[in-house]
UniProtKB/TrEMBL annotation:
Single GO molecular function: dTDP-glucose 4,6-dehydratase activity
Name of the protein: dTDP-glucose 4,6-dehydratase
InterPro entries recorded: dTDP_Gluc_deHydtase, NAD(P)-bd_dom, NAD(P)-bd_dom_sf
UniProt EC number: 4.2.1.46
Pfam families, per database record: GDP_Man_Dehyd (PF16363)
GO BP terms: nucleotide-sugar metabolic process
Keywords: Lyase, NAD
Cofactor: NAD(+)
Family of the protein in this entry: Belongs to the NAD(P)-dependent epimerase/dehydratase family. dTDP-glucose dehydratase subfamily.
Reactions the enzyme catalyzes: dTDP-alpha-D-glucose = dTDP-4-dehydro-6-deoxy-alpha-D-glucose + H2O
Length: 353
């Protein structure tokens, strides 16, 4: 079969990437979808068992930091589009070890840009390089207001600085070499398959195991939460309808103080687990604040709504319900990703290939 387009999705074994891969493989049987992923601790092919045998899907294990490998992969496959999600994504890890973030998020992104430039050779008809980024590049809101697409960059953590750097390179390649790029900056995602280092799955996992629930500082920090499948839908819309060179902010219009969202998760889980009301809340433990902890993120998503017609489809209560049910029904997944058994398994699976 010949395909109308070859699309490379990077980081497709991760949390958001796996939802994007699923959506594209199922919705576009006419596209050949390549999922390039290094399978770090955060990458998990068990997220994709439902699509792994599809005729329009191929997994490629590899590192976006490896220049020779990336350039050979592009030369061999001549991709028409790139949707770039591969990244080191956890703020606390970036505070412990910033270098990995600089390699993957900045050097890796520039490697991909160079490889795309190399195969497209100024013939950009129908080609797109889409970089999936975060609202954290805008820094922290202190006096109300919202991030818009024109808010100045003011990244505060090594993670957000590395994502800001990658955004700048993507735009610079558009400006300098005319590479057809798209960028989106999205707020906090939640949903099934999120690695349990992030707030919601960490709390869900600890509640299941009756372990302390670590709330940083006073729990007053505010985040805007979007259901991951809605983010994947936005990525689809931007990839197909976005105006080349433009940036789109994506948000859930759903702000929560950390302490309030943690208490809500406790309440929902007490009900589902048949525990006494207040039992999980008693596990909440205030711990040392994150260094340089951004106070508030909030997105003004007017542009994507008005220009591309996208808005979130799920109410938060519904999304949270689906998410909690998924973790309760997939405790083996949770145990695997936290025990390291999965990592060892895939190390063996792929070391010889
Ligand atoms: P994740 O950590 O769950 O997944 C990242 C994936 O990238 C993993 O599968 C990992 O194996 C892969 N990867 C890491 N380094 C690699 C490398 N050097 N080469 C190839 N693959 C590599 O992350 P996520 O939460 O799904 O985030 C995906 C993207 O979306 C990131 O770019 C992130 O900055 C952005 N984003 C995330 C959120 C959020 O709330 N999680 C919000 C906005 C934007
Ligand atoms: O144990 C915890 N206790 C706690 O209070 C953890 C893990 C987090 N927190 C707080 C820190 C944040 O204020 O909860 C909030 C959310 O934390 P994270 O889940 O680590 O997300 P955040 O730092 O907001 O970044 C996320 O959203 C933007 C993603 O991890 C990024 O990849 C994305 O770009």
């Amino acid at each position: 079969k010949t395909f109308s387009k070859k699309i490379l999705i990077t980081g497709g074994a991760g949390f958001i990437g796996s939802h994007v891969v699923r959506l594209f493989v199922n919705k576009y049987p006419d596209y050949m979808i390549y999922n390039l992923d290094k399978l770090t601790y955060a990458g998990n092919l068990a997220n994709l068992t439902d699509v792994e045998k599809a005729p329009n899907y191929k997994f490629v294990k590899g590192d976006i930091v490896d220049t020779g490998f990336i350039s050979a992969l592009f030369n061999e496959n001549k991709f028409d589009g790139v949707i770039h999600l591969a990244a080191e994504s956890h703020v606390d890890r970036s505070i412990e070890n910033p270098m990995e973030f600089i390699f993957t998020n900045i050097v890796g992104t520039v490697n991909l840009l160079n490889a795309a430039k190399g195969i497209w050779k100024d013939n950009y008809d129908g080609k797109v390089f889409y970089h999936v980024s975060t609202d954290e590049v805008y820094g922290s809101l202190h006096d109300g207001g919202f991030f818009t697409e024109t808010t100045s960059y003011d990244p505060q953590s090594p993670y957000s600085a590395s994502k800001a750097g990658s955004d700048h390179f993507v735009r610079a390649y558009h400006n300098t070499y005319k590479i057809p790029v798209l960028v989106s900056n999205c707020s906090n995602n939640y949903g099934q398959n999120q690695f349990p280092e992030k707030l919601l799955p960490l709390m869900i996992n600890n509640i299941i195991n009756k372990k302390p629930l670590p709330v940083y500082g006073k729990g007053e920090n505010v985040r805007d939460w979007l259901y991951v499948v809605d983010h994947a839908r936005a990525i689809d819309v931007i990839f197909h309808k976005g105006k080349i060179g433009e940036t789109y902010n994506i948000g859930g219009n759903n702000e929560w103080k950390n302490i309030d969202i943690v208490k809500l998760v406790c309440k929902v889980m007490d009900q589902k687990l048949g525990r006494a009301s207040g039992e999980s809340e008693s596990l909440i433990t205030y711990v040392k604040d994150r260094a340089g902890h951004d106070l508030r993120y909030a997105i003004d998503a007017t542009k994507i709504k008005q220009e591309l017609g996208w808005e979130p489809s799920l109410q938060f209560e519904e999304g949270l319900n689906i998410t909690v049910d998924w973790y309760l029904n997939n405790q083996e997944w949770l145990e695997n990703v936290t025990s390291g058994a999965y990592q060892n398994y895939y190390q063996l699976q792929y070391s010889s290939k």
